[in-house]
Amino acid sequence: xxxxxxxxxxxxxxxxxxxxxxxxxxxxxxxxxxxxxxxxxxxxxxxxxxxxxxxxxxxxxxxxxxxxxxxxxxxxxxxxxxxxxxxxxxxxxxxxxxxxxxxxxxxxxxxxxxxxxxxxxxxxxxxxxxxxxxxxxxxxxxxxxxxxxxxxxxxxxxxxxxxxxxxxxxxxxxxxxxxxxxxxxxxxxxxxxxxxxxxxxxxxxxxxxxxxxxxxxxxxxxxxxxxxxxxxxxxxxxxxxxxxxxxxxxxxxxxxxxxxxxxxxxxxxxxxxxxxxxxxxxxxxxxxxxxxxxxxxxxxxxxxxxxxxxxxxxxxxxxxxxxxxxxxxxxxxxxxxxxxxxxxxxxxxxxxxxxxxxxxxxxxxxxxxxxxxxxxxxxxxxxxxxxxxxxxxxxxxxxxxxxxxxxxxxxxxxxxxxxxxxxxxxxxxxxxxxxxxxxxxxxxxxxxxxxxxxxxxxxxxxxxxxxxxxxxxxxxxxxxxxxxxxxxxxxxxxxxxxxxxxxxxxxxxxxxxxxxxxxxxxxxxxxxxxxxxxxxxxxxxxxxxxxxxxxxxxxxxxxxxxxxxxxxxxxxxxxxxxxxxxx
Length: 583
What we know:
Zincin-like; 27 strands
């Protein structure tokens, strides 16, 4: 049984001291593996780069020969020793929902970042002992049979169970169907439990009703509330880590809706990806990429349900839900990657360039395009079955046939189940929306008609976007630097990303006056620096509207049948006024 031990000497350094004891060794060599990536983030992260002072010693403290075989794999000559200990420091200074962080007042660890396993010992039970101040409490999905010592069934269980330890944890519990749901907060935020718990209970009830049963015996929402603007969440076996900020705005509407949205999203992952898992990830292989093409199911469907179920459970109004949906639309249409790579191929390519925007117009987000694809599929099924069935039925069958059984699904299984539930062929939908590069509005606009809604296409507010087809880099607000150029636009002929604009028609650009100088102009002389060289170019509008904004809104002319379809879809009355905008 492997035994792990974490301690720290000086929190200000960020270094954790890690010790791993391996027993009952019978081989002349032992291979040690540190994960190269973590579930929930499908890109290599190379955690070994944060390891310092790696050594292996025998029971008497004498060093044992070890040598790196790969970037995160070591070979140890055991020299007849049946027990050895691996020692190293780990730099815990990554504050997000997938990292680890050591501070003076609390410790937060994702074990997948910093704990290794010995080859052949992956399925053995293990313990994790934490050297903590006596008054610190631990928030974690693992059992704690002995104070400050956690137990796990095996290595996967251990590294899929992050924890927060401190003396200042805030904690409440609610129960549904006899299952305890723990809500933990670390940080300066002041949670309003009278508001939070009923909302959490409502979306939990909706998810339990959708799937019919829960995969685990308890669940933990591990919230770290930070003193600065931040947003991130990561799913785990029976928990989630959520990092949000700024803390003083926790219960204000803008940040509170983010707390609700990410919490509902991550809870849905307890079924979808933690249990309903692509066969390519059964089991996880932490040594290398685990390529799969169904990110549109794992993340896209979850993104759809994360906000949609908040509306269906009454936590969000229809107005609030449409605002979130329009945010997804805005993010999806930030470039034209949809024309070049399908959402299925973009899923495969998360392992290539991660979650960064990458080069212009190359790919789509499995979250945003996947969400829109899930919405369309839900409405298509509802339309085909006159509201008798929906995407709910598909996901419940995914849970029954692949989640509960633990056999993993293939890409074709999702399509097969969708078609069986719909009772019609969905071949064209999958060919165009999932495996193709057809524009999303071809499918979304008619699908929305079924529930009495429309997809509105509006010109961008800023003239340089709508007339000429370029955006400024929002990360550089004090300078007019081009961040994006739409293909085949007037800007594409004369402008490039990273051009620094300095004048329009001879007038200096300052105080964000670009829009004012271009207002009402269909052509303009632009002076700019490109690679430190001064240039002047001519821009001329050619008629089309570029970089449009999209928004979903109710159709005031919706008939009674469409209004009833809306009610059955969203569980809200159609006639409640909804205000939406594409911005």
